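Appendix B. One record, verbatim.
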Amino acid sequence: MKIIAVYGSAIVEPDTPHYQAALEVGAGLARAGYAVMTGGYGGVMEAASKGAAEAGGHVIGVTSERIETFRPRSPNPWVREEIKYPSLRERLLHLIDHADGYVVMPGGIGTLNELFMAWELVRLGETSFGPMVCYGEYWRPRLAQLIDNHYIHSETTKLLHFADTPQEIVTRLQNLVDNE
């Protein structure tokens, strides 16, 4: 079974549009036959996990002792397989190296770290290629500054894809992942 990593904010609440979008993404990925892998905690991670679990999918949560020491928390209740690492660095590398594709939902510093690290490792060939689909309404304008000012080479932008709805994210990943 192929695994799709879903990155996004740990702090979005269930009554927000981004939580609802992540819920739909998780459900759509599970219905398409993918396992869903997240950082295992709240916000977007919880929403994608819940959506996948409720659709009958396999949910992997990659957690970190360091995060739990810094801010006590437990994995969200929809995680069926927890993989725990001592450090944030090890957690991040697992989320990158063990995914066949990536969904990047709205988020802050942690999500930026996941996006840019995965993007760079794929670009440099340090991890196998996995298509990256970013939630367009959020990411397009944020990344446009870097692209428009030539801080990111145009060849590198070909590794990123954008989709504006949860269904479009799932469809785009199906086309990219299943045709690799």
